[in-house]
């Protein structure tokens, strides 16, 4: 099939990740799984291309020739042709098989448009650093339109943690699903929340530093200092301080030191270089 539009392109197994998965983070990508011998495919293809053109770049169309890309067809469970799968934010969100009437096709494309809640959450995200008060207002507006808007839950929880409003932040994070698009950020915020809750009754950083300096062999004080450092965002120093506390006190190493270090790994990224380094140190200390 000839491709004439700037918003329509071929995709293969070699470039599917780049052209479809990554691009769908910014704009919906509709994938047309077709084959040259498929009559309905030849009917549907031009209609899809026309609808993509009408949207002027608000959605893209990737065409996958299943005769040439059998691996991709198997990966996405394509059992009939044509099959159309729409991707948003890196995930398949809508699909259909066969040729639909144009009114149903138009509805399919309309369902890919951002909702009012999604638009409000996106605006809020862009305002978090420059105008956190306005961002909070927009996140709350998004949740009033859709109480299950997970990016709004996560964004609002992030702002509430900055304000030390721990209870409301905890309620929001409890509602974020496991394994979804925002689960990693939610895990990070849950770890920050845990650190805040663990340290709210501890002395401040200055007092703990002074106490640790006076008695550098006191593992308990070093452990408390490590927790407070982590809650204050000083994660590298916190990990080293906790490690030293664990070396001084075996019981602490297997309980509070270990638990706190694991929470910090979520804050800094569980597969980050720093997390890997201190995960190895923690393992060697425990075993």
Please provide a brief summary of the model.
The chain is an alpha/beta fold and 287 residues long.
Please, could you describe this protein's structure?
- The chain is of the alpha/beta class and 287 residues long.
- Helices cover 60% and strands 10% of the residues.
- It has helices at residues 16-22, 39-54, 70-75, 102-110, 116-127, 132-145, 150-162, 166-174, 183-199, 205-214, 219-231, 235-248, 250-268, 273-286, and strands at 8-10, 29-34, 60-65, 83-88, 91-97.
- The chain has a 5-stranded mixed sheet with strand order 1-3-2-4-5, with helices on both faces.
- Strand 2 (29-34), helix 2 and strand 3 (60-65) form a beta-alpha-beta unit.
- Helix 9 crosses helix 11.
- The longest helix is centred in the last third of the chain and has 19 residues, at 250-268.
- It is elongated.
- The model has no long low-confidence stretch (mean pLDDT 94).
Low-confidence stretches: none
Strand order of the largest sheet: 1-3-2-4-5
Give the tally of β-strands: 5
Looking at the chains present, what oligomeric state does this protein adopt? single chain
Q: Strand share of the residues?
A: 5-15%
What is the radius of gyration computed over CA atoms, rounded to a whole number of angstroms? 25 Å
N-to-C CA distance: 62 Å
Chain-averaged pLDDT:
94
* General shape: elongated
Share of helix, binned: 55-70%
**Class per helix and strand makeup:** alpha/beta
How many H/I helices? 14
Element-level helix/strand string: EHEHEHEEHHHHHHHHHHH
Largest sheet composition? 5 strands, mixed
